[in-house]
Amino acid sequence: MEEPTEEDCCHSDCVNCVLDIYQRQKSPKGLSILKPANHTNSLMSQTRYRPFRLVKIDSDAPNVFIYSFALDDSVEDETRLYFTPGEHVVLRNEPSMNSEHLSRPYTLIPWGESATFSVMIKLYAAGKMSQYINQWRVGQKCHWRGPYGDFSYEPNTYKNVYMICMGTGIAPMYAISKQIIENEEDETVIHLLYGSKTPEDIIFRKDINELSNYWNFSCTHFISNDYHESQKKFNETFVNERLTAESISKTIKYSKNTLVLICGSEEFNSNFCDMFNGVPEIKVHVFS
User: Which family does the similarity line name (predicted)?
Assistant: First the structure.
């Protein structure tokens, strides 16, 4: 366990502050909320930022990119970061003299075999971290720490998993779906309910289609804006309305051994949590 330095703290009251994490790890009870990755390795630290080299940038949807990283040349150890699907890592910017330190969490995703790890990031024109990321070029160093997360999954624990998400909330759902689908012994059935503004805004669209080729995966896209039938691809199922608790009320089957995963905006998460509040047959987990 590495003790963080003053430079490791960005002093911006970020989620998973390195100083708080270090104090939890020092306590006899250990981490009460956060947990280390299931597969421990020396590639990344939860309490110290480490440099990784940007090796690839893939465009996926409007303003959405997949950034893949490899070990910095100064680090010699394992080559891949092992993580539990649903976990995230934290990025720290390298501020100029007149700018401030920033840190943001980004979900880890399974993407290719050559990189140490990959994250999906949506860039916003007015976002301070987005402006920093938009300047990235292949080959430069970026500083990360983690991974963090409190979600765990055991194969065949649930008969059905409903994944309810919007926009970039697809990131943990995609990683968890891949884990389930790639395990031939896991017979859990996945129902992905995914909200987007337009068909072009669907993230991981091709990858979701590939998952749909498996018997235990299905996806319904809720498209809030009007669209033309010609915009459909891959025999997709579209519903022309916003993804709300009311719009999926007839879709959810209230049965035993059901897990519901939710990931979206704070309001989105709250509304769906209210929907399932008090339903004993269903376990709910929210990615915030």
Answer: Belongs to the flavoprotein pyridine nucleotide cytochrome reductase family.
